[in-house]
Structures are given as structure tokens and as C-alpha cells.
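Dear colleague,

Thank you for sharing your sequence with our group. We've completed the structure prediction you requested, and as agreed, I am returning the results in plain text so they can be pasted directly into your records. Please verify that the sequence below matches your submission; if there's any discrepancy, let me know and we will rerun it promptly.
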Amino acid sequence: MAHIKEEKRNGHSYYRLVEWVNGKPQTIYLGTKNPLPKGMPRTNLPDNWIERLKRKAKQRATKPPPNPTLPDGKFSVILADPPWRYDFSETEPRSIEAHYATLSLEEICKYKDSNGTPIQEKFADDAVLFLWATQPKIREALQVIEAWGFEYRTGAIWVKDKFGMGYYFREQHELLFIAKKGDITAPSPKVRPSSIIKAPRTNHSQKPRKVYKIIQKMYPRDRYLEIFGREKYSSSWEVVGLEI
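Please find the predicted C-alpha cells below.
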């Protein structure tokens, strides 16, 4: 038995195929367009439609849409949540590809927009980078920091209210690395936050909204750019992402 689940965020619809296998739900992200003909029920889908939707989802994962265009100008404060690619099998129900298109380490390090503009051209000479990473991706995250022209400085930890995936430990935290380039100064002592960020886990890959406020307090009155974002936090931020 399978059905189509529609999730609405910021006025946009996101569709997923939910199929029960051995008593457990498997979810595959289908995109933002209604994948079924008009008037067709979204429940109890026939087998031929289930296979058809799976094939389209696989094609979407292997041939992701073009990278979105980067905004004009340069930015001194950057937040990035790279779509890390993991070594899950194509049928693994926990596969990241079931939720969004991922990129290889090389594609992240050499990221260019649809016009061929390298991401490095958007960084000011003096800039700070906040980079999200999971425990298995520490080495890759440090490589991205170096490829983007930054130097690793320190990091914070997001502690969640419940645990998620993991082959050794069931992960209940994520890392937020901080790196700098040029002569950008550290925040003044009175606005330096705790390195522990406590916030509940919500939708897959969605990060705590309080992090934006923390960054703006640390670096007020700067230009803010979020890369690989999934929604626009406020007018103070320029956001680039496939779901924006």
C-alpha cells in the first residue's frame, strides 16, 4: 500500500511517495509538482504507478536540476548546509536521496551556479563561514572550508531533543563549524553565545531558526548569505537553494 503525501511550506507544495514495506514506512521525495493526473486519488496507488514514481525519483536524484543563480555582490557572513552524499544503497529507506538531491564532495568544493559563477566569488575578502556538518562528514567539511578559501577556527553543537540515524551511535547532535578568511574580527565578548545550541529536531535536514538570530547577534549589520537553504528566514538574508 502506498500513498502520496503533500507537505506545504511557505505557500509551496512538496510531494513524497510513502510506501509501507515490512510494516515500516519508506519515503521518497518526488519534487514540487503534483506527480499524479488530475482527479487521481492519492491513496492505494496501483503497482504500476508506484514503480513509475520510483523511476522518476531515481532520475531526479541522478540528474538534479541546475544550480540556482547566486545573488549579486559579495557577502561577509555565510551560512552553508551542504547536501552531503552518503554511501547508502539506492533502496535504503534512510537514504538522503529520498528527501533531496545530494552533491559529491568535489561538487560542493567546486560549486558553481547555473551561470558558471564559482561560489568563492561571492565571499568578501574579510568573511566568516558557518558550516553545518554531521559526525561522519567532519573530514569532508574541513576540505570544503579549505576549498572555499577559509581557515577553520572553532565550532558549536546543536543538541536535539531526540536521536536519529547512525550505524554506531544514534546521532542526536550536529556540528556547526566556524571558519574565517581575511581580517574579519571575532565577536565582542558580550555577544559570544554558548557553544551548545539546544533546539528540537523538526523536518528532515531543517536547522533551528534560532541559529539565524545567533549569527546576526554575533555579526550585526553585515550582508548575510545562506547557501543550500530550503526556506528564507528573513529579508536580512539572501538564500540560495533548490527549494527556494
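Summary note from our side: The beta strands are 2-9, 12-21, 24-31, 75-80, 123-133, 151-159, 173-181, 196-198, 224-227, 237-240.

Kind regards,
the structure core
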